[in-house]
Every structure is written in structure tokens, then in C-alpha cells.
UniProtKB/TrEMBL annotation:
It comes from the Bacteria. This is Uncharacterized protein. It comes from Paenibacillus spiritus.
Amino acid sequence: MTMTAQLILIEGLPGSGKTTTAAFVHETLTQMGLSSRLYAEGDLNHPADYDGVSGFTEAEYAAWKKAYNPPEEEIEDRLVRQDGHYLLEYRRIREERAGAGEGGSGQEAENAWLQAAQKYDIYELPLARNRELIAAKWRRFAETARRESGVYVFECCFIQNPVTVGMIKYGAADAETQAYVAELASLIEPLKPMLIYVEQEDLNFSFRKAVADRPREWSEGFMAYYTGQGYGLRRGLRGLEGTVQVLEARRALERKILGQLNMPVHTVNNSAYDPHAHREELTGLLRRHFRQA
């Protein structure tokens, strides 16, 4: 094992089993005696991605402060000035306020500044600005990880997030989204990344299973996001059937992206939802990979 950290990327469509796969990979690496760090989707401490973070320009930040006069004591420890932007961890602030019993229904006026900050979420920004900020963070992560050892395991932020913001949200051309992922891939090349893509043969079945297994709020929000903007909206797609059509297009684009990557890519079929067989396949894959590394 070299001193440079290595990176394993877990990707796949919703309901394919990415979260389970990432957990299996992390557990297996630990059992192999490797130092493994797992970052799942939505981790507020993710070293290469953002979740619940606003990205203001200097002018936007000044206008927001003037309009809402947010409490300095709450934002000062959650604000970073970086790459010409003001980055505010609004979701972490919200969680801290909730933990302190603040932010209830009777404090809408006090919460207006926080709600306004959310509109500048990095994944709500125009695509070019989103890509600039995300690429900058991946670059910083790669530079830091090169001085470390062990293995990082990332769930779904490498392909899924650029495809979601590029294709799903903005209806960007395939080439633009592919270039976004290619830029991230070039940044992490020194970490000798490996990608595991979790596949489902029957996309319609796997998505309907996810809808049945998860809270209604998740499925309603997911389908609204997929059909109410960008790719889905332009094609007049609606409801569950329309969402599946968007997912089919997303899968086609992700297959193109996988074909352009200059890293080991392993497609793992999880259609049987057999955890024992899935774990065995992953264990064999990881042992072969690290024996060759």
C-alpha cells in the first residue's frame, strides 16, 4: 500500500443498492486490515462535496446580509471565504438551532435569513458556478489525500451529482455533463480511483421498489425534481412513469460516462437483492484490486 490514499467510488441509479454497497465495501476493507473512511450521500462532513451549503458571490453575500441582518454569532463559525465565494453551512446552522429548540413555527421572521440562504445552495446555482465550486473542492480533497494513506469510499457524489444538476435540473447537453465528470476524474487521478457501478436489470421494478420502501415524502419530492425542471419538463414527463423515463435517459448517459473514464470500472449486478451474494462478489473484487495495486 502506498502512502497516497486511494479512492473507491460507488455509483448507480436510485434503488440500485448504492448505500448497502458502500457499507459492504467499507466493512470489507476494514476486515482486510485497510484504513477505510466512508462518506455516504448527504454527509455534511464530506471532504469532496457540499451538502446544505450556500455559495454566495461577494455581491450576493453583501445583499443578503443587508436584507436579512443574520445573527453574526450564528454564522461566523459556519462561514468560509474561499475561491471568491462566501460559503455558508446553512443546514448545519439549521440543525444546531433545532437542537437548541430554536426555529419553531413561531419564529418565521427570525428564520427568514436562513430560508433566503438556502436559495443559494450550491446545487441550486447556475451550472457553470456549481461546477466551478465543486471542482475546486475535489481539487482540494485530492491535494490533501495525496499526503495521506488509507482508502476513501464515496457514495454517489462523483457521477450522480453532476448528472443530476446538469441533465436533470438544467437539461444540459450530454457533452457538457460528460465534461463535468471528466474534469473531476482528472483531479482525482493521483488517488488511483476505482469505480463500482451498481446495476439493476429492471429499472422500472427497482425504482418502484424504492418508492414502496421509502417515505412518501421522498418519492413525491424525487418525482417532482425529476419531472418539474430541465430534462423532464422539456419533454412533458409526469408522475411515476415520467420519472422512470428520465431515469432511463440518465442510465444511458451514465453508461456513456463510464465508457470514457480512465480508471477501473466494475459493474455489479444487484438485481437479485441477495445481500450474501452481493457481499461475496464485492469481497472478491476488492481483494483482486488491492492485490494488484
